[in-house]
Amino acid sequence: MCSGCPAGRATERRETAGGNGSLSRGADAGINNVDVTSSAGQAAATSAGDGAEQPQVFTSRLSGRPLLDSDDLAIGRVRDVVIWPLAGNDPPRALGLVVALRRRTIFVPFGRIREISVDGAHLLGGNVDLDPFTQRTGEILASSLYGQRTPAGTVADVAIAQREDARNGWDVTALALGRGRSLLGHGPHIVPWQECRQLFEPGPLAEQLTSLREMAPADLATAIETLPQARRSQLAAALDDDELADLLEEMPEQDQIRLLDSLEIERSADVVEEMQPDDAADLLGEMPPEQRERLLAAMQSMQAADLRRLLRYDKSSAGGLMTSQPLVFSPDVAVAEVLARVRDRHLPATAAAQVYVCEPPAVTPTGRYLGTVGFQRLLRRAPSVPIGDCIEDRLFVKPDLPERELAARLAAYNLIGVAVCDDAGRLVGAVTVDDVIDRLLPVGWRRIGGK
């Protein structure tokens, strides 16, 4: 990982900002007076179906702009945009940016981008994954579409916009087309992506991977059982690390191990780091010791240490079922700040349903455990109230509590989750009701539930 990496020295041609803060440049790029970010106008109205204008980003204009860290320091330069082909009637998805950074080319998913502005692409936090970018099966680079001829004209640019229903989701919305055989000589006209649908049609292999990729993780885990090993490997290569982690969490441990075996050790480590800690510990516990140690050695030291701690517990105990990363806050944190964390759409619903209040440090093992606060109670309190004044109960269990006694405790008190504390009264993790259900259901329940 790299935080605040300095960008290499580069001479950048001056560009001018229009009245709305957008960029314009000459016809050398094939487009005259088309903003880097602009209103979608006719294309957006056609795409959205309700006439509402949505801001768009033209990918050729994004190329060469800086990637900025959380302090607005340039750490690299955008080179391209990665697009995923059509899936049914949904528009093509924009997955992320290809960025040149320190003599290497990396991929930055849009989930790590806070905003795109006249200044460049702003990171959500200052860290980027330095793994080299490799184009995966089915993926399309926006630059590969420039100059392609369609019945409506020659592609000059591709426009993308952020989806209203998903904070980190971006779609292709429109294309800028030249009216003649050449991109020069005529100003482009903007058309909805549907008029050039053929550019985004997947090939036979990519089509199957696209349909599989759009499934919910539980359904994908069921579908992947019928695929030959070679196709499983291709699917794993097509998925992002977090998507593959979600899939692994829904698969039996032995299938997880076989799928990870098809990946390089560095990719396997990245994927396991994206898994929920309790699921990752279960997976590592089923591996042969040598394979487990190789994988832990390839992981970041803090996450590897966290998983080693979880592996010490019996898998059928509260310690073996708990996650080591519940939402933990110091008692002086305001309700407004807690709710901001709870809103994170990447959090599982069971993890966001309640938070744990502890004396510092607020990472496990924490300081003294003080109690829990449910999400509904947070909504009823004023934003400025300290979370320590909202504590509802102080119930906890010990790490060695057997799973059946743990299940009985959750049922008796109608709990969504429960704190797990050591002998010193420190929070070491939390168990949620879904973790207990997973353990108590019979072997093969996923196949039954997926039908």
**Main sheet record:** 13 strands, mixed
- Whole-number radius of gyration? 25 Å
Q: Helix/strand/pairing class, anyone? A: alpha+beta
Shape: globular
- For the record, the count of structural domains works out to 3
Residue-averaged pLDDT: 81
Share of β-strand residues:
15-25%
Strand runs, count: 23
Low-confidence stretches: 1-35, 39-52
Assembly classification: single chain
What fraction, in percent, of the residue positions are helical? 25-40%
Q: Please work out how many helical segments DSSP would assign.
A: 18
Characterization of the model:
The chain is an alpha+beta fold and 451 residues long. The two termini are 41 Å apart. The protein is 32% helix and 24% strand. Residues 1-35 and 39-52 have low confidence and may be disordered. The protein has 3 domains: 2-202, no CATH class; 215-312, MgtE N-terminal domain-like (MgtE N-terminal fold); 328-439, Roll (CBS-domain). The protein is built from 18 helices and 23 strands. Strands 4, 5, 6, 7, 8, 9, 10, 11, 13, 14, 15, 16 and 17 form a 13-stranded mixed β-sheet that branches. The chain has a 3-stranded mixed β-sheet with strand order 18-19-20. A hairpin with an 8-residue loop joins strand 7 (74-84) and strand 8.
Spell out the blueprint of helices and strands.
Elements: E1 2-3, E2 16-17, E3 23-24, E4 37-39, H1 41-48, E5 55-58, H2 59-62, E6 66-68, E7 74-84, E8 93-101, E9 104-109, E10 113-117, E11 120-123, E12 127-128, E13 140-141, E14 149-150, E15 153-162, E16 170-178, E17 189-192, H3 204-213, H4 217-224, H5 229-238, H6 241-249, H7 253-261, H8 265-274, H9 277-286, H10 289-298, H11 301-311, H12 318-321, E18 328-329, H13 335-342, H14 349-352, E19 354-358, E20 369-374, H15 375-380, E21 396-397, H16 403-412, E22 417-421, E23 427-432, H17 433-440, H18 445-449
Parallel strand pairs: 6-11, 18-19, 21-22
Antiparallel strand pairs: 1-12, 2-3, 4-5, 5-15, 6-7, 7-8, 7-13, 8-9, 8-16, 10-11, 14-15, 15-16, 16-17, 19-20, 22-23
Helix pairs in contact: 4-6, 6-8, 8-10, 9-11, 16-17
